Amino acid sequence: MTRQRFIGRRDWMKKTGAAAAGFLLADMLSGFTSKKAPVILLRSGWQVENIGDIAHTPGFLALLEKYMPSAKAIFWPHYHYLPDAEVTMLMRRFPQLQIVQGALSADGKASTPELEKAIASADLFVHNSGPATIGWAEAKAFKKMTGKPFGVYGVTYGLYGTPEKELLSDAGFVYFRDSVSLERARQEGIHAPIMEFGPDAAFATDVLNEQAAITYLEANGLQEGRFLCCIPKHRYTPSWLHPHKNKSIDEERNARNEAMKEHDHAPMREAIIAVIRNTKHKVLICHEDETEMAIGKEWLLDKLPENVKASVVWRNTGWLTDEALSIYKRSAGFFGHEQHSPIMCIGHGIPAILGRWEEQSSKGYMWKDIGLADWLFEFDKEEDIKRYVPAVLAMAKDPQTAKRKAEKARSFVMNRQQTTMKVVKASIS
After folding, report:
1. Which of 104, 258, 347, 383 is deepest in the core (most CB within 10 A)?
2. For residue 184, pLDDT beyond 80
3. DSSP reduced 3-state for 235
4. CA 30 to CA 157: how far, in whole Å?
5. For residue 263, how many other CB atoms are within 10 A of its CB?
6. Whole-model pTM above 0.70?
């Protein structure tokens, strides 16, 4: 990323501080003391096969609880299927949460009475973090039907041919989760009144299942602070293996995965070996997307030397975001190719090293945006691959330094969250 394209963190703080101050002044002058609790309609939940994507929803709900405690949240899932276990997890953490199902027709009619009522009662529509403004049509319909504002909180811009350009200019605020998306949106003429960098909501995720985590770690001989988590991934997620998506195999993407799987996972195996042979840490091979369980066994565990395998645990059962986060919090750090597990780690001050490649979106550049440039590894660049194993080993051997670095990034993210949520709150008035 060139210097011209990268927007510095200090610039964000200056610009955002002024914008937030303007909103707060307007808030004070308007005497915003409505007796009615503000209602936020949250469009989120893009898929359920990936614990990282699931994390978007509790992340924003946690921010709402912290910065707008009087607000009522209505969660409107985008995905057609919401498992009972996920509902239980959300309701355990947010017992007042309302969840509505349904869709909007082309002429703006809700398919269920609960959705119709939710749209009518909402003061603000928030499109949650995601790979693009996936729910653009619903945001557009909400404003047309109600005349009330909508905002976008932490998205990547320009993927999947999403027709979001015109919509974003009509939003009250748009937060992009990486500086590349922000700069591209500016260059393409998007002109929302508030258009800045805003961390992915998953940074704020705090759903926990402590007992499940403790039970799992004890059963597998993993001690708190004495293991690293590792997540493998193919270039393209084989979504054709997700039962609820019912997709045909993408032969072109599958061929690319096959061609690059040794290239992309060999450095991870080397990192595992280095950690086991040079520290007292163990390694937990786990997954974010359910399809990664098999990848972890085939391309990491099975190819490790026998004398290393004894100190490696392979997670061969599914889990939810709450158990995963409870385990991440007890680890000494993370390295891997997925994005939202490291996001959740940094959100709790746990060191996290991220690998990415050209097939992925620009979201990985957020690691530069929050001050973790030397923990971002481009697996299409040999010079980055060469420094990968030393970086993972350094994280394991010097946990105090790694922890301070993670905490510094977390502090930056938390400051941005505070500022962005002031804007969300003020937009209602």
Report:
1. 347
2. yes
3. coil
4. 33
5. 13
6. yes
